[in-house]
Specification:
This protein is of the alpha+beta class and 233 residues long. It has 2 domains: 3-138, Jelly Rolls (Sandwich), CATH 2.60.120; 149-231, Winged helix-like DNA-binding domain superfamily/Winged helix DNA-binding domain (Arc Repressor Mutant, subunit A). It has 8 helices and 12 strands.
Length: 233
Amino acid sequence: MNKSLKFWYLENFDFFSELSQNQREFVHRNTEMKSLLKNEIIYLEGSPANNIYFLKEGEVRISKFNDAGEEFLIRIIPPGSIFGESSIICSSKRKEFATAEKQSLICRISNNKMKELLLLNPELNLRYSGMLEIRLENMQKRLEDLTFKNSEERILDFLKTTAINSGKCSNGEITIPSSLTHKNIAKLTSTSRQVVSGVFNDLKKQGIIYYNRREIRILNPDAILNSLSKTVK
């Protein structure tokens, strides 16, 4: 990749926004950019965990296989996010696998260089630690939801959480730019594609959401943000 283009991508990555110029140069020198095709594997479960990745464009699917050999979808990584992050403090082997959900652009840095960067910038170190804590809490919440919430509640909670974390507000609506299929939402909420389609169709009929292949628009945010199953009749 052209060096000036690579530097532009790194300059516009939110995680690096608080770095000094010298620290930005450090990132530039020690990262490698790579374009990915749809469904291209980035790393496999059990492979060496030597790098951390930043997603600039596209989407990445983080999954595991259960004992029956079925894929368990952990999360879909949107642009501007970090993944493979736990390798810096945890196992030397990957505990999940990562695949490009669509054509994507990633940036890779080795664990050792990432540790150097975190030591150079204590504030960045705190942000990184906070991110790990939030992701751990999200996994814990997902496990609790499986125990205490029904399918419809989990789907609505998914919409609520996604709207808060990545939605964009405009004219009283929240737009979630996403290519998530009903099948992937079902995997993320441990439900079925049919149940997801049913809930989405009910919400659409009530004028609460509108959706297509490119986005989900929450037309009535209060109905999603302030309630769960009672919004689905």
